[in-house]
């Protein structure tokens, strides 16, 4: 991968050096040989400065964008509970996309679906942490929030233009950019329509190479439908852990296309530009217990059985339809655990 840099100061220094070494050629009539030698020296200096700069600062190169799938696999298997499809599929999809022996012809586009607190943002952040040295803070990781960034349907055209411009500019700067669009169901219908030309095949044509980028859409869209379908599958004799991506994908594509939000009737779905629709299943009590234990561990606190029960009882309310899924997943655990830890310290 070539090192892309946009450090304006270094570019200025480069230009100044060329001017300084080639001198005021028009006045004194500098010899062409000296000019060529001067330029070669400057290019060498620039290359070296670039090399050292990228040793310490973030550049679009192997060091800053290591694409460490092994790290992702390890962290997901250690920290993510109750999402066997995500564990299996997301890692493989990323691996296949990043493999240099199989050059991609389009960006990788995934859509994560699920009820609140099932781990969608948690996984998207872990992807960023594994793929980029600076993780979610990387300048090549671009995160958008539906409610904060694209809340008003009346400003649809402005949002479309913003997405269009920012995606184009970011990919020009670094083809291995990651775009995370969170709360997609809170975005206005049609907001992604200009994005389709970037994420579909032929994305490597034009002014930049879009084929190496990764786009992830996160939404609650079809979360309830995932639960209903899971219950149906379980009633037909399948264990939760034996369900597959193919059990959910068609249903998710249809729901995303028909339900309110940024994906509704979008030409991204019509053009089949979304590669994977990934279900995040609603969590059950056993998963919540694992989240509680992990959170206590994060605090370096050894909980009693009573501590764990207290948090689970406070945090878990069950869905009225099936009475088996915790409505907020693991979302409220962090704060509940913090209270118990605090109370026991004081
Ligand atoms: N499946 C899970 N396994 C382990 N921890 C989880 C899981 N799901 C959620 N958590 C914990 O709960 C926190 C909140 O989850 P997260 O923000 O990923 O939910 P979400 O699916 O994005 O919800 P929302 O749809 O409301 O945005 C995470 O930071 C993580 O600590
Ligand atoms: Mg989220």
UniProtKB/TrEMBL annotation:
InterPro entries: P-loop_NTPase (IPR027417), TOR1A_C (IPR049337), Torsin (IPR010448). Residues 1-29 form the signal peptide. One of its GO terms (molecular function) is ATP hydrolysis activity. It comes from the Eukaryota. Gene3D superfamilies: P-loop containing nucleotide triphosphate hydrolases. Pfam families: TOR1A_C, Torsin. GO terms for cellular component: cytoplasm; endomembrane system. SUPFAM superfamilies: P-loop containing nucleoside triphosphate hydrolases. GO terms for biological process: cellular response to misfolded protein. Residues 283-337 form the Torsin-1A C-terminal domain. Keywords: Signal. Belongs to the ClpA/ClpB family. Torsin subfamily. This is Torsin-1A C-terminal domain-containing protein. The lineage of its organism: Eukaryota, Metazoa, Ecdysozoa, Arthropoda, Hexapoda.
